[in-house]
């Protein structure tokens, strides 16, 4: 089993967002859900700054919370993962059957 460190995930998210920032700066347009929307350079810098600050805050909170020792250990069974997987598959089936919760469905 691969153990993923919170620092590795944080650095990965930061790198992906910096790449997106550089691409948006060079084209002057946003990526993702708002692709094609024109944006000013000041807005891009502010959004990157706020993103880095919030990511640092969340990482710091994780570091503090991860040091708290639980009062007692809770044993989990293998059925928890199976139940979550079945609920996820059921939700996906529901979305495809009803065409709800999709972009532009309402």
Element layout with pairings:
Elements lengths: L5 H22 L13 H26 L12 H20 L8
In summary, what is this structure?
The protein contains three helices and no strands. By secondary structure, it is mainly α.
Average pLDDT across residues? Answer: 82
Instruction: Work out the strand percent.
Output: under 5%
**Oligomer, anyone?**
single chain
Cα-atom Rg, whole angstroms?
Answer: 20 Å
The total beta strand count reads 0
Return the structural class: mainly alpha
Low-confidence stretches: none
Characterization of this structure:
By secondary structure, the protein is mainly alpha-helical. 64% of the residues lie in helices and 0% in strands. The chain is built from three helices and no strands. The protein is flat, with a radius of gyration of 20 Å. The mean pLDDT is 82.
């Amino acid at each position: 089993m691969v153990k993923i460190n919170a620092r590795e995930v944080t650095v990965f998210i930061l790198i992906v967002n910096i790449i997106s920032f550089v691409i948006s700066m060079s084209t002057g347009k946003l990526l993702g859900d708002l692709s094609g929307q024109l944006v000013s350079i000041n807005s891009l810098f502010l959004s990157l700054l706020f993103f880095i600050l919030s990511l640092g805050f969340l990482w710091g909170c994780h570091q503090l919370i991860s040091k708290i020792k639980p009062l007692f250990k809770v044993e989990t069974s293998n059925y928890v993962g199976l139940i979550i997987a079945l609920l996820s598959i059921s939700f996906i089936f529901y979305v495809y059957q009803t065409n709800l919760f999709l972009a532009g469905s309402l």
